Amino acid sequence: MAEKNPILEAKRYLDNARTILREKAIKEDDRYTDRKYVKLAGHAAYTGVLLALDGLFGLKSKGRKDINWYREQVARTDKKLLTNFMSAYELLHLSMSYDGNQEVSTAQSGLKRADEIIRWVEQKTANC
C-alpha cells in the first residue's frame, strides 16, 4: 500500500472539521448549538496538525507522542511555529475537543492556526 502524503491527509482532516462544524454543529449567531460535534471537529482539526508535524519530523509509527515531545521538536524548528502550535493545542485540543467550547470565534481561531501550521510545514517540506 502506498504511503499517504501527510500534508494532504492533514488538509483532509481540516476539511472534515470544517464540514462537521458547518453541517452538524450548526451555527446560531456566534455559537454552535451541538457540543458533541464541536468536540469532534476540534479533534479532527488537531489530528490534522499532528499529522502535518509527524510528516515534518519523519514519524511513521501509529503511536502518538505527548504534547511535551511536540513542543520540544517544534521549538527547535521555529519559534513562530511554536506559538502557532501552542495556540492550536489550546484552542482545538483543549477548548474544543475536551471542553466543547461552542464559541464560533474559538473554532475560527483554532482552524486559522491549523491552516498556518500546515501551510508552513508544506512550504518547509517542499524545500527539502
Question: What would you call the structural class?
Answer: mainly alpha
In helices, the fraction of residues equals over 70%
- Largest sheet, spatial ordering of strands: 1-2
Specify Rg, calculated over alpha carbons.
14 Å
The CATH class label is Mainly Alpha
Shape: globular
SSE string: HEEHHHH
Protein name: DUF5618 family protein
Organism: Dyadobacter sp. 676
Domain DUF5618: 7-123
Pfam families: DUF5618 (PF18498)
Could you explain the architecture of this structure?
This protein is mainly α. The protein is built from 5 helices and 2 strands. The protein has helices at residues 6-25, 35-57, 67-77, 79-98, 104-126; strands spanning 27-28, 31-32. It has a two-stranded antiparallel ribbon with strand order 1-2. Strand 1 (27-28) and strand 2 (31-32) form a beta hairpin.
